[in-house]
Design brief:
It is built from four helices and eight strands, in the order βαβββαβαβββα.
């Protein structure tokens, strides 16, 4: 790898069925701010949101990019560090999402759980990790 040049960046792009509904959902649940939105006909072909300090893009599904709901399987798994994972998970569920696994105290030192939004993407919501690498590994080694 050439270390003299910037490596670039990675931005998740969520493919959804109903991009405008997804934008509204992410605004209500995560306080997302819409930065850009472009359409071709009735379809959103590109939207950029600021969600919890991160950039996330999304678009309506099409023949080249099916959504998780069309494929019948989960989409992207996004990790969210928050001081209130219970509240964030509850907000997702209250807005039409579902619990994948309940928020609880995890053996690696965080309080967290996983929820799926109505568009098929999953959100791992947890408190920030504060344990050392050794403590995390020890907690995981003792979990079953």
């Amino acid at each position: 790898m050439d270390t003299t040049r910037s490596p670039g960046s990675i931005t998740p792009k969520l493919v959804v069925r109903g991009a405008d509904a997804a934008i509204d959902f992410y605004r209500r649940v995560f306080g997302a701010e819409l930065q850009q939105r472009f359409t071709a006909g009735e379809s959103v072909v590109f939207a950029q949101l600021q969600i919890l300090g991160s950039t996330v893009q999304l678009k309506d599904e099409d023949t080249h990019d099916p959504s998780p709901t069309s494929l019948g399987r989960p989409g992207v798994l996004l990790s969210v560090d928050t001081e209130d994972p219970d509240g964030v998970a509850r907000a997702v569920v209250d807005a039409g999402g579902e619990v994948v696994f309940e928020v609880g105290d995890q053996p690696y030192g965080a309080r967290g759980g996983r929820v799926r939004d109505p568009f098929g993407h999953e959100w791992l919501v947890q408190t920030p990790l504060t344990w050392s690498a050794e403590e995390i590994q020890s907690g995981l080694d003792g979990a079953d």
